[in-house]
Structures are given as structure tokens and as C-alpha cells.
């Protein structure tokens, strides 16, 4: 299979290189060849700076490399057998020190201007606290009573497992989709307060132009005023451990009334059409396959399918979802973990032991495992029930009440 | 008295017979290499270590490029992928490029300044033999349950503190590499300052020695800083300190400041000797003296000075105060001036020369071309507001690989092609050399040029998997990586023939290259085991530095 893939990639590449037309057809040039212009005033300024310095470099390159290759051609021994014997010239050396210096000064002025505007946080109308976790983001709308976590979309998460057998090309926005999107209002100066809980991350959405490190113990600031409604995708840009490549950022910008509505719905727990990634296809089909024959021949790779029929199908389906979003990165979808850093859950003493200890372990974390107290009682109960009834385990369900009772102990 | 004479005779005996050969017995031969204090032997050992490490680091890069060949995870777990990126960097920087240049310095610095050996030969032996242990320790993590270090070569806490049992191995390995570098640096400085042949004033020093002298000072200034930083990591992990832990009153960003105070000069440690090599090779094959010798020296010194005040441009995104960002942006842009001067000088050296393109010259010209491309992307990265977009993307990966591979590595390759006839006494095969050059030059660009684009378009560094839009360019890049790796075996075959399988190889003349100047070309080929046991008379024609003003002064004096 791999060989087939290799050949098909080679053929595609050959086609790409063979004709410029193919390139134009395959790519949206703005998306693959260059920095995005973006959707904020700052991002447009940055793009302009980028293009100006790029063309300055191109012009210098043409002059310098032009001289070099002319010399390579015209001053080779067969054309120029007798070398000249000059070896210094104070005037020309001063000239080629002063001219680059002048070019740099001309470049530095607009760059400094943009930098100063970037650092001007005054007049922000909305503050959102962004916290990096291994390996997800938390968004808190400051003083609005809304806060949630955002993790890699379940479909991408399934497809990206080693030997998953799922072709990433079948996943829309592979690795660039999340379960809960960050919703921001357009035309509003939004201040992002960026920090981290465990290790250093970096919050980066290219269309908003600014990248900031999320550092434990620091609160960094950046701001953006998004002009156009739309969906803007980004990634964690600072190496943060095993799943650094799998904690994307999705910003959904909507007009202010829709934002206010979304905020109110979110606060009151009402369902809202805004801010969700698409419904997971692979997980749903895998969950269904526990009861019915698998609709997908490739399903064996999604370990959820192999789970025995759980006590209450609805709870376990939810549990599988929470497990896959929160736990599977380390303990793996099949529960086999990655010893010794990330122990296996299959046959684990904690998972098969008393529910109280299992809940405590989850709420407080241990060693590399961060605390998961931020999850709701129901979510924790569902995930633990899933763990305790999957992979041949018969440890019995955990209820939300039990989780609640263990909090603060 | 008689006794004294005897020992004296024994000493002479040794000198005349030269080094122990394999034919003298395997045990004796091994002990020669372990106990050797000869700068040429140690130069050879350094170069062999460098070559081995380039292969090891190269194989790691192939694991990386194989995994990135297409979207999805096909071969390795993300954790192992991170181990590969981390070790690839450490092995290439500390095991490939640095020992490569130390090997060249061992061989060439004494021969270029007319000294019989480096100043401190036993320290030199020690400095080398530390390294195999250091790298065994660094790589030992691969055989541990908890795996090798995977927090990136920059070792940022808190992430690096999550490393398992290989963590103390990493720290100790870094300490050992630092000790080795410092001993090498001391040797170079003492040799150049104290052991130059009579008449070789500092401004007549070959440029390779000048660049190495400055590099050695950078090493002495920065390696202890790195040692301090990693020691604090060690105590944070095992002894309950909180230098870099915010929860204990420490500061994770402080590590980055300390690390890059070492790290940025380190970048110039990797490239300044390359400048020296290129400044040696281009005049030889242009048959024309180096243009602007003095300005070359001043440019190297300015670059070295600036390298100490630009470190935070590696950390524009940590949230520095505006004043800090502005200062580091301006200081970084300034580096373009002396670097530009060097490039202009190289081109002016070629200008109206009489150029031929033997393999060392091909690599040197490619260096000027491709290193400058890396310089341009460096200038773009200096613009702080734009750097917020470039930072930690493949644009940066492309940038530093352009300055390190067709930069530093091409310079090492060029230097070995240039001097190997002097070392072995036979000419390498020119046709194979040219084939090696063209394959390397083509594949290195296939490998790294496309990475600029995916970086700009939003692909971050140090990830084993990526969004679908980046698939084709990543595949192209992987083809370049495998092609480049395979092409290097042409060079290995060529050099192995010079060293071990010399049948049918053309003997090298004493001068080797008709346009070459310098004391190393005044001794026979191969260079005898001991050279310049008495200080040489320097013929003016052997000086690689030519100054107008001195001539003008002389004329002036004569006219008076």
C-alpha cells in the first residue's frame, strides 16, 4: 500500500513540476506559496512589510548574483587568462558599507511603526484568556462567564494515529479542525491574554498576524480586530511535547449581534449553531459499529469499534467521545498507552480498582498527567465509565454524583 | 653523559621513523591513535568523528523526512519523531560541524602559521577523546525505556524537564562537549598568538586562522554560559531548585535568554571558520589576492561583537517589552552590513580574476550563492513584526539550513577537497568530485528551497504531520533529502580512495593548486608527520594578505 502511495505521490509531483498550469490548478497560491494577507489591519501591514523586504532582497540578489555569475562566465581562465592584480579600494568598500546601511534604515522605520502599533493594547473591547495545555487550548471570555476547552477534532484525531488506516485526504480540514471553536465578534478590538498551564506553547493564527508564546507564569498580551466574518485556522507554534502538532486553533468570527447571541446561548447552556466543529463522522460510525456491523471496512484501526457493548449505550458513546478528546493522546485510543511515560489503561490497577481512587487520579493528575478537574462531573463520569467497561474491563460504571463527592477531597 | 646521549639518539630515532603503522601490529597502531598528541593525527580523528556524526545525524533527518513524505503517521510515533528532531540538531551542530572545523584547525592552523604543532598537544588529545564518550551518552537515550531527549535541541524548560532517564545523560553530554570545545579553543588561541613564524604579524595571518581565532574567543565566552544554563536545568529537575519554574518563583523565559546568549554566538561559531575557508579557496582559484583583507578581518570581528547583542531575536514572541523588541530588531539588521561586506569582497576577489572551477572552488562559489540566500531570509527574519509570522515555522527551518548546510557544511567539504591532496599526497578524482558537487547543489535546493513556501503558508516546525495543503511541497523536500544523502557517498568513496585505496591515484605536487599561497604549500605532499620543527623563513609570495598601503608607504619612504 505504501509503495502505491509513493508512486501516486511521485506521479502527482511530476505533473505539478511538469506544468505551471498544473500548479495553478492545484493550488490556491495565497495558501501554499506565501504568507496570508490576513483579515486585520495589522496582518495587512505585516504582509506589506514582508513583501517589501522580500522585493528589496530580490533586487539586491539580482545585482550581487548578477555580478557573481557574470564573473563566473566572463572571468574564467579560458576567456580571461591573465588575472588583474587589484586587491583593495577604500572608496568602493566605504560605498558598499554605507549603501546597505541606508537600505536597512529605510526598512527599519516602517517596521518599528508596525511594531509599536502591535504593542498598543489600549481600547480593547473584549478580553479573552487563552491557556495552553498539553495538548489543547482553554478559552475564557473574561467577565462574561463563558469558558471552554478546544481540542483536535475527533475525526482528525482518529486519522492521525500511527497506522490508523484512515486516509487523511478524506478528512475535511485535516489537523486544522477542533471540537469547540473560539468565537469572536468582527469589528471589535479583542485582547488576547495568553498563558499556559504546563509547558510553553505558542498561539498562532496566521490570518490574525500575531504569534505569542503561552508561558506558564506569564500572561502575554496581543490584540486583533477581525474585519471579515469567517473561519480562521492556526496551530500551536512552540514545541510542547508529543502532540505539539495536534492542538490546532480555529477562530470563528461572526458579526457582533450574532456574537452576543452566541455568548448568551453558551452561558445559559442552550444549543447554538455557532462555534462547533462539524459533527464527527468517524467516531459516530465507530460508536454505531459497536452495536451494528461496521459500515466501514477500515474500521478495525479505530479501537473504539472493538469495545464491548457498554452498559448504557448513550453514556458510553459520550464516554468514548470524552475519552478520545481528552485521554487518547497519551493513553491511546486502544488504551494501550505508551509505556513508560504514558502507562497502559488496559488491565491497569487504577482503572480496575476502586472508583474513588480512579476519580482522584483523574481530578488531580499524577507525574506527567495533568489534572482534569476542569472537566464537568458528567464528562469525567462518562470517560471513566468508558475506561472501566472497555477493553474487557468489568469494573463498573462511575456516576456524576460520585465524581462530585470526590471534588475537594 | 653516555646515558644522556643514548636517550637523545632514541628521540631522534622516533622522529625519523614517523608514526606507528598498522604493519607494526594492531595493538600498537590502536594505541598510537589513542595516545597521539600529533596535531595531524588528531585533525584526522576529529574529521573522522565529524564524518560519522554527519552520517548518524543524516540518518535521523531521513527518519524525519520519511515521516513527512505524506500526511498521516506512517512510520514513527510523534514522541520518537521529536527525539529525532532533537538529536538531529545536537548531533549535527556539536558532532558534525564543530568537530569538522576543529579537525580542519588541527590540521591547518599549525601549518599555516609555521608552528610545529598546537601549543598544548596533550590537552588536544584529551579534548578529542572526550567526544566519543559525550556522543555515546547523548545517544544512549535511544536505548532507554523512556527514550532519548525530545524537547528540542534548545532544551526549553519546563518541557525538557519532562525528559526521562536520558535527561542527566543529555546534560552531562553537553558539559563534555563544552569542555572539549574550550580546550580546542584555548589551543587555537595560544598557537596563533604565540607560535607564529617570525615575520607573520597578525595582519599577515591567513584568513582561515583569523576566523578561527575569533571563533575560539566566541567559544570561550559562550560555552560556560551554556554549561551554566544546563546545570540549572539539572538542579531544577533533581535538587529542588526553581531557577526556571514560575511556580517556585523562577522564570522559564530566563532560560531562553541564557541559552540564546550562548546560542547566537554559537551560530557564528558554526559559520566564521567557513568564512575563513571560502576566503582561502576563492583567491586560489581566481589566481588573484583576496580583495579587502583588512575589511575581512574587521568584518569578522564586528560580526563576532554583534553576535553578543542580538540573542533575543530568537525569542521575539516571548512577550518582551517594546523597547527590547526594537533594540534587538535594529541590532540584528545591523549584522547584514559586515556580512554584506564579506560577500562583496568574495565577489570582488573573483572579479577579473582568471577562474577555474575545480571541486573546492565549485563548493566555495556555491557557498557564496546559497549562504547569501540564507542571509536574505535572515534579514527578513530580523524584521520583528514580520518575524511574528515567520517564527517557529518552516521558513525558519529553511533559513538556518541554508546557512548551515550549503553554508557551513559546504565549506567543510570544500576545505577537505582543497587540502586532502596535501594530507594524503594523492589527488582525489576530479570527475567524481564534480559529480558530487552538482548532485549536492541540486538536491540541497530541492530539499530546502520549497520549505520557505510552506513556512510562509503556515506550517509550523517540529511536527510529524501536517495539513493537506502542504503535502506536495513536503514530498518534494523529502526527495531532496534522500537524494542529498545518497550523493554524499560519492564523496566518501573519493576520499576513501585517497586515504586507503591509492592505486592508480595521481600523486599530488607540493603546491597542489597553481594559484595556492601559504606556508602549508611549502612542505611536501603528503605533509610529513612533523612539519616546521624549526620556524620557516616566510617568502613574501606565500602571504595571502596583500596590502596596498604598506607598499604605498614603502614607495613613499623610498621617494623621500
Structure, explained:
The complex is a heterodimer of chains A (409) and B (560). Chain A is of the alpha+beta class and 409 residues long. Chain A has helices spanning 2-18, 20-26, 29-32, 41-74, 90-118, 154-159, 256-268, 282-291, 313-326, 328-331, 349-352, 355-364, 377-389, 400-406; strands at residues 126-133, 136-141, 146-150, 182-185, 189-196, 201-204, 211-214, 220-225, 230-236, 249-254. Chain A has a 5-stranded mixed β-sheet. In chain A, helix 1 packs across helix 2 (20-26) and helix 4 (41-74) runs antiparallel to helix 5. The longest helix of chain A is centred in the N-terminal third of the chain and has 34 residues, at 41-74. Chain A is elongated and about 90 Å long. Residues 19-30 and 286-315 of chain A have low confidence and may be disordered. Chain B has 560 residues and is mostly helical. In chain B, 68% of the residues lie in helices and 0% in strands. Chain B contains 17 helices and no strands. Chain B has helices at residues 2-17, 26-35, 39-67, 78-113, 121-140, 166-194, 207-238, 252-286, 293-306, 322-334, 336-350, 359-382, 384-390, 394-424, 430-457, 471-499, 548-559. Chain B is globular, with a radius of gyration of 24 Å. Chain B starts with a helix and ends with a helix. Chains A and B meet through helix 1, helix 4, helix 5, strand 7 and strand 9 of A and helix 4, helix 8, helix 9, helix 10 and helix 11 of B.
Oligomer: heterodimer
Overall shape of chain B: it is globular
Please give the share of residues in helix of chain B. Answer: 55-70%
Uncertain regions spanning at least 5 consecutive residues of chain A: 19-30, 286-315
Mean pLDDT of chain A: 83
SSE order of chain A, one letter for each helix or strand: HHHHHEEEHEEEEEEEHHHHHHHH
Helical segment tally of chain B?
A: 17
Structural class of chain A: alpha+beta
The first-to-last residue Cα distance of chain B is 59 Å
Proportion of residues in extended strands of chain B: under 5%
The helix content of chain A is 40-55%
Largest beta sheet: strand ordering of chain A = 3-2-1-5-8
User: What series of H and E elements makes up the topology of chain B?
Assistant: HHHHHHHHHHHHHHHHH
**Spans of at least 5 consecutive residues with low confidence of chain B:** 1-16, 549-560
DSSP summary, beta strand count of chain B: 0
Total beta strand runs of chain A: 10
How far apart the termini of chain A lie comes to: 53 Å
Amino acid at each position: 500500500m505504501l509503495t502505491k502511495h509513493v508512486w501516486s505521490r511521485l506521479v502527482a509531483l511530476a505533473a505539478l513540476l511538469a506544468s505551471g498550469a498544473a500548479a495553478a490548478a492545484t493550488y490556491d497560491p495565497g495558501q501554499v506559496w506565501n504568507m496570508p494577507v490576513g483579515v486585520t489591519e495589522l496582518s495587512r501591514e505585516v504582509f506589506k512589510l514582508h513583501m517589501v523586504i522580500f522585493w528589496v532582497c530580490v533586487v539586491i540578489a539580482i545585482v550581487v548574483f548578477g555580478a557573481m555569475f557574470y564573473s563566473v562566465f566572463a572571468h574564467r581562465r579560458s576567456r580571461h587568462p591573465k588575472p588583474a592584480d587589484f586587491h583593495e579600494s577604500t572608496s568602493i568598500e566605504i560605498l558598499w558599507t554605507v549603501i546597505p546601511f541606508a537600505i536597512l534604515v529605510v526598512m527599519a522605520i516602517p517596521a518599528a511603526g508596525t511594531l509599536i502599533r502591535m504593542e498598543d493594547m489600549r481600547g480593547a473591547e473584549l478580553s479573552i484568556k487563552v491557556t495552553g495545555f498539553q495538548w489543547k487550548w482553554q478559552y475564557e471570555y473574561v467577565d462574561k462567564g463563558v469558558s471552554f476547552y478546544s481540542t483536535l477534532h475527533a475525526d482528525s484525531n482518529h486519522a492521525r494515529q500511527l497506522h490508523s488506516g484512515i486516509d487523511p485526504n478524506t478528512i475535511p480540514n485535516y489537523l486544522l479542525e477542533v471540537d469547540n471553536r473560539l468565537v469572536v465578534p468582527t469589528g471589535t478590538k479583542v485582547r488576547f491574554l495568553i498563558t499556559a498551564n504546563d509547558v510553553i506553547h505558542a498561539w498562532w493564527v496566521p490570518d490574525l498576524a500575531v504569534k505569542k508564546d503561552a508561558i506558564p507564569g506569564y500572561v502575554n498580551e496581543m490584540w486583533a480586530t477581525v474585519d471579515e466574518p469567517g473561519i480562521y485556522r492556526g496551530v500551536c507554534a512552540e514545541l510542547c511535547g508529543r502532540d505539539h502538532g495536534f492542538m490546532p486553533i480555529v477562530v470563528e468570527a461572526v458579526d457582533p449581534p450574532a456574537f452576543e447571541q452566541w455568548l448568551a446561548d453558551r452561558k445559559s447552556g442552550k444549543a447554538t449553531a455557532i462555534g462547533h466543529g462539524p459533527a464527527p463522522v468517524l467516531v459516530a460510525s465507530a460508536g454505531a459499529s459497536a452495536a451494528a456491523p461496521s459500515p466501514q471496512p477500515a474500521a478495525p484501526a479505530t479501537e473504539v469499534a472493538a469495545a464491548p457493548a457498554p452498559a448504557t449505550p448513550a453514556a458510553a458513546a459520550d464516554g468514548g467521545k470524552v475519552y478520545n478528546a481528552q485521554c487518547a493522546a497519551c493513553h491511546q485510543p486502544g488504551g494501550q498507552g505508551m509505556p513508560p511515560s504514558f502507562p497502559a489503561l488496559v488491565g491497569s490497577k487504577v482503572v480496575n480498582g476502586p472508583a474513588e481512587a480512579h476519580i482522584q487520579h483523574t481530578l488531580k493528575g499524577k507525574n506527567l498527567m495533568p489534572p482534569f478537574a476542569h472537566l464537568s462531573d458528567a464528562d469525567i463520569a462518562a470517560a471513566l465509565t468508558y475506561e472501566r467497561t472497555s477493553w474487557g474491563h468489568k469494573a463498573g460504571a462511575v456516576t456524576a454524583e460520585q465524581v462530585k463527592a470526590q471534588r475537594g477531597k | 653523559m653516555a646515558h644522556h646521549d643514548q636517550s637523545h639518539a632514541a628521540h631522534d630515532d622516533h622522529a625519523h621513523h614517523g608514526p606507528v603503522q598498522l604493519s607494526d601490529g594492531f595493538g600498537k597502531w590502536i594505541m598510537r591513535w589513542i595516545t597521539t598528541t600529533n596535531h595531524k593525527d588528531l585533525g584526522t580523528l576529529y574529521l573522522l568523528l565529524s564524518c560519522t556524526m554527519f552520517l548518524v545525524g543524516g540518518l535521523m533527518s531521513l527518519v524525519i523526512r520519511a515521516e513527512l513524505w505524506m500526511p498521516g503517521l506512517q512510520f514513527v510515533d510523534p514522541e520518537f519523531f521529536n527525539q529525532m528532531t532533537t538529536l538531529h540538531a545536537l548531533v549535527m551542530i556539536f558532532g558534525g560541524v564543530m568537530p569538522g572545523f576543529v579537525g580542519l584547525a588541527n590540521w591547518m592552523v599549525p601549518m599555516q602559521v609555521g608552528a610545529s604543532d598546537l601549543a598544548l598537544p596533550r590537552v588536544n588529545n584529551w579534548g578529542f577523546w572526550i567526544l566519543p564518550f559525550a556522543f555515546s551518552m547523548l545517544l544512549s537515550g535511544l536505548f532507554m525505556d523512556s527514550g532519548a531527549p525530545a524537547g528540542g535541541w534548545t532544551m526549553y524548560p519546563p518541557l525538557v524537564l519532562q525528559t526521562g532517564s536520558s535527561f542527566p545523560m543529555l546534560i552531562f553530554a553537553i558539559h563534555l562537549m563544552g569542555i572539549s570545545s574550550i580546550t580546542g579553543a584555548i589551543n587555537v588561541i595560544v598557537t596563533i598568538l604565540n607560535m607564529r613564524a617570525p615575520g607573520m604579524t597578525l595582519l599577515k595571518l591567513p584568513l582561515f586562522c583569523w576566523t578561527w581565532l575569533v571563533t575560539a574567543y566566541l567559544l570561550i565566552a559562550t560555552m560556560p554560559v551554556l554549561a551554566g544554563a544546563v546545570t540549572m536545568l539539572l538542579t531544577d529537575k533533581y535538587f529542588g531548585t526553581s531557577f526556571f519554574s514560575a511556580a517556585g518563583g523562577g522564570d522559564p523565559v530566563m532560560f531562553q535568554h541564557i541559552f540564546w546568549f550562548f546560542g547566537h554566538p554559537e551560530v557564528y561559531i558554526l559559520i566564521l571558520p567557513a568564512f575563513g575557508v571560502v576566503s582561502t579557496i576563492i583567491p586560489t582559484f581566481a589566481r588573484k589576492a583576496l580583495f579587502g583583507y583588512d575589511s575581512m578581518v574587521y568584518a569578522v570581528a564586528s560580526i563576532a561583537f554583534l553576535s553578543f547583542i542580538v540573542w533575543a531575536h530568537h525569542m521575539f514572541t516571548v512577550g518582551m517589552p517594546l523597547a527590547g523588541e526594537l533594540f534587538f530588531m535594529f541590532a540584528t539588521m545591523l549584522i547584514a552590513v559586515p556580512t554584506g561586506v564579506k560577500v562583496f569582497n568574495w565577489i570582488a576577489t573573483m572579479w577579473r580574476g582568471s577562474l577555474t572551477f575545480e571541486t573546492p572552488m565549485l563548493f566555495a562559489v556555491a557557498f557564496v550563492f546559497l549562504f547569501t540566500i540564507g542571509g536574505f531570509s535572515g534579514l527578513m527574519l530580523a524584521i520583528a513584526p514580520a518575524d511574528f509570522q515567520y517564527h517557529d515555522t518552516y521558513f525558519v527551518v529553511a533559513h538556518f539550513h541554508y546557512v548551515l548546510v550549503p553554508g557551513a557544511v559546504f565549506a567543510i567539504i570544500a576545505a577537505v577537497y582543497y587540502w586532502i591532496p596535501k594530507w594524503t599526497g594523492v589527488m582525489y578524482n576530479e570527475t567524481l568530485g564534480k559529480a558530487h558537487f552538482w548532485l549536492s547543489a541540486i538536491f540541497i535546493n530541492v530539499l530546502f528551497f520549497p520549505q520557505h513556501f510552506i513556512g510562509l503558508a503556515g506550517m509550523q516546525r517540529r511536527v510529524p504531520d501536517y495539513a493537506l495543503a502542504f503535502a506536495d511541497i513536503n514530498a518534494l523536500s523529502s526527495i531532496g533529502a534522500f537524494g542529498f544523502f545518497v550523493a554524499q557517498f560519492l564523496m566518501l568513496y573519493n576520499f576513501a580512495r585517497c586515504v586507503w585505496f591509492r592505486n592508480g591515484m595521481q600523486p599530488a605536487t607540493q603546491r597542489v593548486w597553481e594559484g595556492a599561497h601559504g606556508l602549508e604549500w611549502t612542505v611536501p605532499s603528503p605533509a610529513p608527520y612533523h612539519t616546521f620543527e624549526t620556524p620557516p623563513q616566510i617568502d613574501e609570495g606565500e602571504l595571502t594578505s596583500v596590502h596596498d598601503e604598506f607598499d604605498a608607504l614603502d614607495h613613499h619612504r623610498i621617494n623621500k
